[in-house]
Specification:
Elements: H1 2-5, H2 10-27, H3 48-51, H4 58-72, E1 77-80, E2 100-102, E3 108-110, H5 124-133, E4 136-140, E5 145-150, H6 154-167, E6 173-175, E7 182-186, E8 194-200, E9 212-216, E10 221-225, E11 235-237, H7 251-267, E12 270-274, H8 327-336, H9 347-360, H10 369-376, H11 386-395, H12 403-409, H13 411-422, H14 456-464, E13 469-471, E14 475-476, H15 491-504, E15 518-521, H16 526-540, E16 550-553
Parallel strand pairs: 15-16
Antiparallel strand pairs: 1-4, 2-3, 4-10, 5-7, 5-9, 6-7, 6-11, 8-9, 8-12, 13-14
C-alpha cells in the first residue's frame, strides 16, 4: 500500500484516489487491490493533476515571455496568476486567467494597472519577473485582434470555427485538449469589443456561462501560453503568432464574420444576442430574440494611432525624453522600411513617420537630414521633393513619437531591439533555453520528492531510540530549545558561555560537548555581546580560543 500511496500528489489527486477507494470498498468491503489504483496516466499524454509532472513553471514561462517579447515587444504583455498559486480567496476562482504579480511573500495579488491607455503599458522588468515566477503569458488586445469562441457544444463550435477559417484561412488558432473553445489571433486596427451570445431556441437564456463568440477589443486581454484553470496546456496550430504573419482584419471583415455566424446559429435553432461594437448603438441587435442584450460602455481610450506632430497627443520636445532616442535604430529603420503608399496611405501617415524618425535620431538629427529626405521621397509620392521634405522637417519641433513607434511598425527592428535587451536578461541560464519543451518528457520531467510513509513499527522504533545530542543531556540535534528566566539573572551570559564552548568542543559544566559551528544572533545589545566575547576570550586565553568556530550577527 505504501508503495502506491507515495505516488499520489496534491489535493486533486487525493480526491481522485479517495473516489476510487470508496468505489472499491463498496464493491469489495475490506479488500482493495492497489495494483489497479489509477494513480498514473499514460506516458504519452499525462493529465497534469495525476502525473505529478509540472507542465508549466519558470523555465517554460520565461521561454514563452521571451518568444512573445521578441515578436511584439513588452508593452502589451501580461502575466496571469497561474493555476494553484497561493493568493487571496477572492482571486482563487480566476487563477489561470486573472492578471497579477507574485509578492515577496510568495502570495500573488491582482494587477491594478488599466488595460487601456498609456498607463497600461508593461515594462520589460515586469516581463522578466513574470517569467521567473512562472506566470501564464497573456496579451492585451488593444493592438492584437482576437476572436474568442467560447462554445460548449463541439458540433456548433466546429461550425463557428469553420466560418472564421473560411474568412481567414491562415489564422493561428489557440486551443486546448478536450475543449471546444478556441481563440483566433489576427492583425488589425484597434477596435472596440463585440459579443454574440447564443442559446437553444426552446430553452431560456442561461443566467451565466452563455456560449458566445466575442471579438476582444481595447480594454481586454487573452491568454496566449500557459495553463488553463483546469490545468490543461494552451496550444497553437495553423501556425504560431510569433512565427507566422497574422492575417489582416478590419471592421467590415469582422462584421461579415458576425453576420455569417449569426445566420448559421439561427439556422441551427439558436437564439442570439449581439451587443454590437461597444459604443456604437447602430450595430446592436434589437430583434425580439435579443431582449436581454445590453450595450457595453465604450472604453474611452484614444486609438493607438500616432497623432500628428502638429496637434493632439502628449506634447513633448524632441529631446525631452532620451528614452525615445535611438540614432542607430532610426537609421536601421530607414534601411529596412522604405516609404511607400502601401506603408503610408496618406500624407499624414508619412508626416508621423518623419516626426518619429526625427525624434529618434536624437541630438545628431541634422547630420542625417539628407538621409531622411532620401527616405521620404518615393515614386508613389511624386510631390515628396526636397522642398516638401524641408517644409515638414522644419515644422516638427515637438512630438510624442519616437523609437517605440518605429519599432511598432517594423517587426525586424523590434526583433533586433528585443534580442539586444535579452542579451543581459538576468535570469538563470536553465530558464533561458531557446526552445524548451512545453511539456517535459522522459528524463526532462521534474519529479517531486516522494512522500515518506511510516508504519506503526517504524514509528515505535524511532520513538524509542535516544535522540543524538551535541551537549550531553541538554541540546539534541535538529531540536529547538527555549531558555527563560527573570530579567537580569544572566541568561545571555550562560548561553554565550555555552555557545563558545560548543564552538571549541570544550565540556560545559561537566557535560561532554560535540564541537560545531555557532552563530550568535544578537537581537539587542550587540555591542555588549561583543564586549562579553572579548572578555571571555581574555579570561580563557586568546591563544587557546583563537580557532573557535564562532560568529555574531549584530544587526537583526
Amino acid at each position: 500500500m505504501g508503495k502506491k500511496v507515495d505516488r499520489v500528489r496534491g489535493t486533486k489527486e487525493c480526491q481522485h484516489i479517495q473516489v476510487w477507494v470508496k468505489s472499491q470498498l463498496k464493491s469489495s468491503p475490506g479488500k482493495i487491490n492497489w495494483d489497479e489504483a489509477p494513480l498514473l496516466a499514460p506516458e504519452d499524454n499525462p493529465p497534469p493533476a495525476l502525473a505529478g509532472v509540472p507542465l508549466w513553471g519558470p523555465r517554460e514561462a520565461t521561454a514563452e515571455f521571451q518568444r512573445w517579447h521578441r515578436k511584439y515587444g513588452p508593452k502589451d504583455l501580461l502575466g496571469a496568476i497561474p493555476p494553484g498559486a497561493e493568493t487571496a480567496d477572492h482571486l482563487k476562482p480566476g487563477r489561470g486567467k486573472t492578471p497579477g504579480y507574485k509578492g515577496n511573500d510568495g502570495v500573488w495579488f491582482g494587477r491594478r494597472k488599466p488595460l487601456s491607455g498609456p498607463g497600461a503599458d508593461t515594462a520589460l522588468e515586469e516581463v522578466k519577473k513574470w517569467g521567473c515566477d512562472g506566470a501564464n503569458v497573456g496579451a492585451m488586445t488593444r493592438n492584437l485582434s482576437v476572436f474568442d469562441q467560447d462554445g460548449k457544444d463541439p458540433r456548433i463550435s466546429a461550425g463557428i470555427d469553420a466560418i472564421i477559417k473560411r474568412h481567414f484561412p491562415t489564422v493561428p488558432e489557440r486551443y486546448r485538449d478536450n475543449s471546444p473553445s478556441r481563440a483566433f489571433m489576427l492583425d488589425g486596427p484597434r477596435m472596440s469589443r463585440r459579443r454574440l451570445a447564443y442559446w437553444r431556441r426552446d430553452t431560456p437564456r442561461p443566467k451565466r456561462g452563455t456560449p458566445a463568440l466575442e471579438y476582444l477589443g481595447d480594454g481586454q486581454y487573452t491568454n496566449v501560453a500557459g495553463l488553463h484553470p483546469s490545468g490543461v496546456l494552451y496550444k497553437w496550430r495553423n501556425g504560431h503568432p510569433c512565427e507566422t504573419g497574422l492575417p489582416k482584419i478590419d471592421r467590415s471583415a469582422a462584421d461579415q464574420v458576425f453576420a455569417d455566424v449569426k445566420a448559421y446559429l439561427e439556422e441551427e435553432g439558436y437564439e442570439t444576442a449581439d451587443t454590437g461594437w461597444a459604443g456604437d448603438k447602430s450595430t446592436a441587435d434589437h430583434s425580439p430574440s435579443n431582449g436581454s442584450a445590453t450595450l457595453r460602455k465604450p472604453i474611452g481610450d484614444p486609438p493607438l494611432v500616432a497623432p500628428s506632430p502638429s496637434g493632439g497627443g502628449a506634447r513633448k520636445g524632441l529631446d525631452d525624453d532620451p528614452s525615445r532616442h535611438d540614432e542607430a535604430g532610426a537609421l536601421r529603420y530607414m534601411d529596412l522600411c522604405p516609404n511607400s503608399a502601401e506603408r503610408n496611405p496618406s500624407r499624414g501617415d508619412a508626416v508621423r513617420e518623419v516626426a518619429a524618425i526625427k525624434t529618434s535620431l536624437g541630438p545628431n538629427r541634422e547630420e542625417h537630414r539628407g538621409r531622411a529626405s532620401d527616405w521620404h521621397q518615393h515614386p508613389d509620392w511624386p510631390d515628396n521633393d526636397d522642398a516638401e521634405f524641408d517644409k515638414i522637417w522644419d515644422s516638427i519641433t515637438d512630438s510624442e513619437l519616437g523609437i517605440e513607434y518605429l519599432r511598432s511598425r517594423c517587426p525586424e527592428l523590434r526583433d533586433e531591439a528585443a534580442q539586444a535587451m535579452f542579451a543581459d536578461w538576468p535570469i538563470p541560464p536553465e530558464y533561458c533555453s531557446d526552445a524548451p519543451p512545453l511539456a517535459p518528457s522522459g528524463t526532462d520531467r521534474v519529479k517531486r520528492p516522494p512522500i515518506t510513509v511510516l508504519t506503526l513499527d517504524q514509528i515505535e522504533k524511532q520513538a524509542s531510540s535516544e535522540p543524538p545530542d551535541f551537549v550531553e543531556g541538554t541540546i539534541c540535534d535538529g531540536g529547538t530549545s527555549g531558555w527563560y528566566g527573570e530579567t537580569n539573572v544572566g541568561k545571555s551570559f550562560v548561553l554565550l558561555d555555552l555557545g563558545l564552548r560548543v564552538s571549541l568542543g570544550w565540556s560545559w559544566h561537566g557535560r561532554s560537548v560535540e564541537r560545531g559551528g555557532v552563530i550568535y544572533i544578537a537581537g539587542e545589545g550587540a555591542r555588549g555581546i561583543m564586549q562579553r566575547v572579548a572578555a571571555w576570550r581574555k579570561h580563557h586565553g586568546e591563544e587557546r580560543t583563537a580557532d573557535a568556530r564562532f560568529a555574531v550577527i549584530p544587526d537583526m
